[in-house]
């Protein structure tokens, strides 16, 4: 008789198609970081500085995704990078990364549904915001509870909306630059304006590294979905290469267009933040091109982007908790999937934590800000874990006598790729709040960098309790096939 867990996993795999994976990986990297925060990035570092920062982080993300792709095509598994840390580095690292990442996305869902209320106030300012947030949470839970395919289809179409919006923006922006639409063409005048194209020097670029890093978070969903892909050896490499070119086109070209049309000193760029979600450099460009209703249209696009982020967050955190249960890092009930292939108990717990976090914004604002701050850097910590895991995987692979020709997909420029990702992620984490570090503002430092001690607590707890050690390269488990339930054997 077939194992019900394995049977449900097979159903999940059959539902994930290559077109979904590539579009969702792209959609996961296009969100409010591009539509909203890109303006503040240009204001902080100038047009040239913003372009350098986004290009550097984009290259780093590409190398990071090729690292994840090499491991995911060789050993596809749900919640992959926490499982890889367990197998290739130290079970304590896998434990800490898994819980850290789950916590991050559970909190992010709460932040996103709170943002939904801010966006809806643009049209319905007199309706209590919590109503919109509750509706959004119920909608996201329902999408994830119906079936795996319902999640993929929803994300696929939400991603298409974002992609089409950016393409239209680029065309209209180009026409505005050369003077076909709107006012007289701007050309390169704003790149030479005052202190442009570089403003605030290296500190300015480092500051934008942080903004760009947050903008690209979500691309690691390729690894989370690896265990549910019918043909990971084909779909994952294709998705990675498509994401690289699309990031280049969408992010780099979008930053270029915005910086050519709007001067970096413009107050509209300074207002581009999550606190004023209705202000977007995209909106300003559309308005300058003479398009009526631009603000309302962009607000609708930003709404779909936030819902997409919350939907992806619910999926990612649910699958991570599911994977951790199969590794023995969480209760066994979280590793059970229903007949539709949904790890329902993992979904329920994630939804509960997201709802409770959202409620703290009403009953305890300080607690809410504490939770949001605690999850702030966890995405970068996950990226560091991916880089370390891949470096160890490749070294163990060679040490044990394997040939690179055995790999279905090769990461680019090893070991440069993972080492570059490691260095830049550390720089981004340090640069999160350079002013507080320079001023020795311990309260601000504690709030900003709270994710780090929380991660260390998880890591040290598991390491001391189970007395785990760094796995020798010669003993790293490199079996070419893997079942989720086999991951339990890697627990110390």
UniProtKB/TrEMBL annotation:
Places the protein is found: Membrane
One MF annotation (Gene Ontology) recorded for this entry: amino acid transmembrane transporter activity
Keyword Manganese belongs to the record: no
Pfam families referenced in this protein's UniProt entry, alphabetically: AA_permease
Transmembrane segments: 21-42, 48-65, 102-124, 130-152, 159-181, 201-222, 243-265, 285-310, 342-362, 368-388, 409-430, 442-462
Record keyword Transmembrane present: yes
Protein's UniProt name: Lysine transport protein
Gene3D superfamilies: Amino acid/polyamine transporter I
Record's bilayer topology term: Multi-pass membrane protein
Organism listed in the record: Furfurilactobacillus rossiae DSM 15814
Start and end residues of each Amino acid permease/ SLC12A domain: 20-469
Top-level taxon of the source organism: Bacteria
Keywords: Amino-acid transport, Membrane, Transmembrane, Transmembrane helix, Transport
GO cellular component terms given for this protein: membrane
């Amino acid at each position: 008789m077939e194992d019900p867990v394995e049977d449900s996993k097979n159903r999940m795999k059959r539902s994930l198609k290559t077109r979904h994976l590539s579009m969702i990986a792209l959609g996961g990297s296009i969100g409010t970081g591009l539509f909203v925060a890109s303006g503040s990035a240009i204001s902080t570092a100038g047009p040239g500085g913003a372009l350098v920062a986004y290009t550097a982080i984009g290259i780093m993300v590409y190398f990071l995704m090729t690292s994840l792709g090499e491991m995911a095509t060789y050993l596809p598994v749900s919640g992959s990078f926490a499982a890889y840390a367990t197998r290739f580095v130290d079970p304590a690292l896998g434990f800490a990364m898994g819980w850290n990442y789950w916590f991050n996305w559970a909190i992010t869902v709460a932040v996103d549904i709170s943002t939904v209320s801010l966006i809806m106030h643009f049209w319905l300012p007199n309706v209590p915001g919590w109503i919109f947030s509750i509706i959004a949470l119920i909608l996201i839970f329902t999408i994830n509870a119906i079936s795996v395919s319902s999640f993929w289809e929803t994300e696929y179409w939400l991603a298409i909306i974002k992609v089409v919006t950016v393409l239209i923006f680029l065309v209209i922006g180009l026409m505005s630059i050369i003077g076909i639409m709107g006012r007289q063409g701007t050309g390169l005048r704003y790149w030479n304006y005052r202190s442009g194209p570089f403003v605030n020097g290296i500190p300015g670029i480092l500051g934008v590294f942080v903004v760009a890093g947050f903008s690209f978070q979500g691309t690691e969903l390729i690894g989370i979905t690896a265990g549910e892909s019918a043909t990971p050896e084909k779909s994952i490499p294709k998705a990675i290469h498509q994401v690289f070119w699309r990031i280049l086109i969408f992010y780099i070209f979008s930053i270029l267009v915005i910086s050519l049309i709007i001067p970096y000193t413009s107050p509209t760029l300074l207002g581009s933040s999550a606190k004023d979600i209705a202000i977007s450099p995209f909106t300003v460009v559309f308005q300058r091109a003479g398009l009526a209703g631009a603000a309302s249209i962009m607000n609708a696009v930003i709404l779909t982007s936030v819902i997409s982020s919350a939907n992806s967050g619910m999926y990612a955190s649910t699958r991570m908790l599911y994977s951790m249960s199969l590794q023995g890092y969480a209760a066994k009930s979280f590793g059970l999937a229903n007949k539709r292939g949904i790890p329902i108990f993992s979904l329920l717990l994630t939804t509960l934590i997201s709802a409770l976090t959202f409620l703290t914004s009403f009953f305890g604002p300080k607690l809410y800000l504490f939770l949001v701050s605690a999850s702030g850097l966890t995405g970068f910590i996950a990226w560091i874990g991916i880089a370390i895991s891949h470096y160890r995987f490749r070294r163990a692979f060679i040490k044990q006598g394997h040939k690179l020709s055995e790999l279905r997909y090769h990461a680019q420029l090893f070991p440069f790729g993972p080492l570059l990702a490691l260095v830049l992620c550390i720089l981004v984490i340090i640069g999160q709040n350079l002013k507080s570090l320079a001023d020795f503002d311990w309260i601000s430092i504690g709030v900003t960098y709270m994710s780090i001690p929380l991660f260390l607590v998880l890591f040290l707890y598991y390491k001391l309790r189970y007395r785990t050690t760094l796995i020798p390269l010669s003993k790293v488990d490199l079996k070419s096939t893997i079942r989720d339930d086999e991951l339990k054997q890697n627990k110390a």
